[in-house]
Amino acid sequence: DAGVTQSPTHLIKTRGQQVTLRCSPKSGHDTVSWYQQALGQGPQFIFQYYEEEERQRGNFPDRFSGHQFPNYSSELNVNALLLGDSALYLCASSPEYTGAYEQYFGPGTRLTVT
Amino acid sequence: AQSVTQLGSHVSVSEGALVLLRCNYSSSVPPYLFWYVQYPNQGLQLLLKYTTGATLVKGINGFEAEFKKSETSFHLTKPSAHMSDAAEYFCAVRRGNTNAGKSTFGDGTTLTVKP
């Protein structure tokens, strides 16, 4: 059983560019959350998707947007990249109705903005 | 609103010694609490969780944690440290009784294990 997968593993972009990160949730999971982890810090919640809708959003600007597809996979898009967007981006999935409550994390995408 | 404070950004122990990583939380509703471990250049792996029921929870790799509501704490312990335990550890809190919504993480504690 594959866990949460993310692509690409690493990415280098220039300030002002746009980037798309992808996530496939663990089998049987229908809720996807995205987190940003800056160097030396804990993950910060960006937003969560369920039933193809953004259900909750953290304190991130509108440059950060997302999408969830019918197969539950998800994308994170960041426009007008800033140097401060350099971070590890983590995707986490969870099953909505099992009562398990924990989130399973992918390996992350390391984004470097130059 | 929820928050997590991990006391001590760096903890160093000798191999075989007790590991104690401290976590205090703040939550306006009954919380669910988690400890995760992160090895270099990897994602987060769940060590253990508290949702309801028994306040002493056991996790993988010999770790355990105790939920103390009166102290708003959820400290992580392991009786005997192994070299392989060297990693970054994160405590997290979520709103209880729902899968909706975010996890709020502490800033992490780096555990070093000396031979």
Alpha-beta content class of chain B = mainly beta
Give me the strand/helix succession of chain B. EEEEEEEEEEE
The shape of chain A, in one word, is globular
The Cα radius of gyration of chain A reads 13 Å
Task: Calculate the mean pLDDT score of chain A and round it.
Answer: 93
Main sheet specs of chain B: 6 strands, mixed
Identify low-pLDDT runs of chain B.
Answer: none
Structural class category of chain A: mainly beta
How big a fraction of the residues of chain B is strand? over 45%
How many distinct beta strands of chain A? 11
Mean pLDDT of chain B: 92
Number of helices of chain B: 0
Give the uncertain stretches of chain A in residue-range form. Answer: none
Ends distance of chain A? 37 Å
Helix content of chain B: under 10%
Shape of chain B: globular
Ends apart, CA distance between termini of chain B? 41 Å
Portion in beta strands of chain A: over 45%
Profile the largest sheet of chain A. Answer: 7 strands, mixed
Number of helices of chain A: 0
Helix proportion range of chain A = under 10%
